[in-house]
Amino acid sequence: MTELAELDERVNRLTLEVVDIRGIATKAEIDAADVRAGLRGHTKALEDLRKTQLEQGRDIVDLRSEMRRGFARIDERFAGMDERFAGIDGRLDGMDKRFDGMDERFARLEGEMKEGFATVGVELAKISTLLRVAIRQPGQPVES
């Protein structure tokens, strides 16, 4: 083979290699573009996720504040109820003392009534005796 033929064959071989290399490079460029597109998608997804996390974080802070305000209102209302129950307890204690006093008065009145009825019974017996004497009922013993 002549030098020209060898050179021509070498050029043809190199041309085929260049075509192959360009095909590989084109495929690599397409693959790289796909990878870049995927990375952009992943980056966008991560940015959206971060945005959502920040929004949810603010929502959690708002909910926590609202919850604490609600519990504070409940605590205040329970404190008010505790004060009212303490007042009711005081009033019931006062009523208990008054009922105790009434019990003592009723016991004293009951004793006075028994004593009074006993006195009335004695006096009625005297009256009965006097009436019998005054009427002079024979056969009836006179009691003194």
Task: Describe this entry's structure for a reader.
This protein has one helix spanning 3-135. The protein has 144 residues and is an all-alpha fold. Helices cover 92% and strands 0% of the residues. It contains 1 helix and no strands. The chain has one domain (1-144).
Number of strands: 0
The SS-based structural class is: mainly alpha
Relative strand content: under 5%
Helix count from the secondary structure assignment = 1
Helix content: over 70%
Count structural domains.
1
Low-confidence stretches: none
Rounded to the nearest angstrom, the distance between the terminal CA atoms is 182 Å
Shape: rod-shaped
Radius of gyration: 59 Å
Outline the biggest β-sheet: none
Element order, helices and strands? H
Mean pLDDT across every amino acid position? 91
Chain-wise SSE layout:
Elements: H1 3-135
What would you say about this model in short?
This protein is mostly helical and 144 residues long. The chain has one helix at residues 3-135. The mean pLDDT is 91.
Features:
144 residues; mainly alpha; 92% helix; 0% strand
